[in-house]
Amino acid sequence: MMADAGSTLLVEKEYPNSEKKKTRYDVIIIGAGPAGYTAGIYCARARHDTLVLSGVLPGGQLVNTTEVENYPGFENGIMGPDLMVIMRKQTQRMGAAIIDDEVVNVDFRQKPFKILTSSEEYECRAVIIATGASPRRLGLESEIMFGGRGVSYCATCDGPFFRNQELVVVGGGDSAVEEATFLTKFASKVHLVHRRSSLRASKVMQERAFANSKIQFHWDSEVSDISGQQKVQKVTLRNLKTQEKTTLDAGGVFVAIGHTPNTRVFEGQVELDSLGYIALKDHTKTSVHGVFAAGDVHDHTYRQAITAAGFGCMAAIDVDRYLTETR
Ligand code: NAP
Asked: In principle, which of 50, 141, 155, 163 could form an S-S bond with 179, CB 3.0–4.6 Å?
């Protein structure tokens, strides 16, 4: 999913129901990635008055990617931003309203639930939280510059674009070790760069990685710079003990240093797990009756567009049952 150019479908809103000036809905979906839009499609299609509050950057993580090859239904792949525009239009066509506004506060202690955005206060009987998660960044300027041009946060999504190249994976947890192992299917060599002298990943994953002759470990090291012409060509490592710098000829950098769920606004309103993700009670139900969650905001295992969309569908079906039962 390299480079975010090439999108041909970025047509702005075509469906007038996005402009509805209403503040009460049956269900409000917070977030507009694959989970949020799918939930919107199902809720609206079930004839519930549905609003999707999409935040200021609608589309979720897929708007920062280019080609998506593994979303079923697109034989030749599709650009990530285009896929999100299609989902958005489909959601609107089903009758959901979409407003590009950011939720700044929620009150789930009373019913109807209250949702405050930067410009409006809304009320609803049910909520689906689909705010996703954001990959942690290294914090380098060159990381931003080469985003979508060799810097990636998802090996499953982007690995196949790097056949026969040397790649760098950063991190020492399960994600980094799993991604490094996965990337050896495509790469000529994978450099795993970790800031400590031992991995945090589970023993079984470590053993698998140590046994893989394509993976070279760089201990006590960090990526200090990423450079290249149009895309990533060189990655500079700094040894944190000796300060020595090494430059690798690598075509890609996979940052796998964890994710941060976008749950800050829900703190104290619904139960979160020890990592800050929404804790689910039963399928998509949260600790608050009538509040549901879908996608990467609760799922720290699969994190795929297709699984997020699946969770969105599940949450909408759970909302449909809840609204029918509590009518
Ligand atoms: P994680 O366990 O939090 O590990 C993050 C790694 O990145 C750590 O090694 C950490 O270093 C390093 N790191 C953090 N910030 C960094 C920075 N600024 N610069 C360089 N390195 C940095 O995250 P994760 O690997 O994504 O795993 C998250 C959760 O998902 C875990 O519970 C994991 O078990 C689970 N998971 C499971 C599977 C599986 O079972 N198949 C696969 C993936 C993830 P330190 O060690 O120094 O802190």
From this structure: 155
